[in-house]
Write a structure and sequence with these properties.
The protein is mainly alpha-helical. The protein has helices at about 5-10, 10-35, 35-50, 50-65, 70-85, 125-135, 140-150, and strands at about 110-115, 120-125. The protein has a domain at about 70-153: His-Me finger endonuclease fold (3-Layer(aba) Sandwich). The protein contains seven helices and two strands; from the N terminus they run αααααββαα. Strands 1-2 form a two-stranded antiparallel sheet.
């Protein structure tokens, strides 16, 4: 029997394997649908990561992964796609022609700025402006106090 014949007429082994996979997928869906199971799993993961030995293993693994050619770029692209989806945008504003930082006008290292309280997209910020806003905890009072400090000192 050739591979083509097997694809047209799966034998009993292939049928059983397909059926086993379908049952496993259904079982997994039921398990993940139960919020109690997800909470147990999250707790278990947190406890595993809290162990210093496991944290060291995870850190070493991630360093090796990032060192492989192309992986850091893949991770950055994946993170940006996730953020675009999370914010409900159907395009990546940083990839548009003429995109620049809304605070200083820089065109390099653009980030999608969003409110952590409302989850809404606010605009593009360059890396330094985005980090500064994060350090100031998105608090307009802190920004005003800091501005007053640097203009009067």
């Amino acid at each position: 029997m050739t591979p083509t014949d097997r694809a047209r007429n799966p034998g009993p082994t292939e049928d059983r394997e397909t059926e086993r996979r379908a049952k496993k997928a259904a079982s997994d869906r039921r398990w993940y649908a139960n919020p109690g199971n997800r909470a147990k799993q999250a707790t278990s993961i947190r406890q595993w990561r809290a162990d210093p030995e496991n944290r060291a293993k995870l850190t070493a693994y991630m360093r090796r992964w990032r060192a492989r050619p192309g992986n850091s770029a893949k991770k950055a692209a994946s993170a940006r796609r996730w953020l675009v989806r999370k914010l409900g945008l159907d395009y990546d504003p940083a990839g548009q022609p003429g995109a620049c930082c809304k605070a200083c006008g820089a065109t390099q290292e653009l980030n999608l700025d969003h409110s952590h309280t409302t989850g809404t997209y606010r605009g593009l910020l360059c890396g330094p402006c985005n980090r500064a806003l994060g350090f100031l905890r998105d608090d307009p009072g802190r920004v005003a106090s800091l501005l007053e400090y640097i203009t009067h000192r």
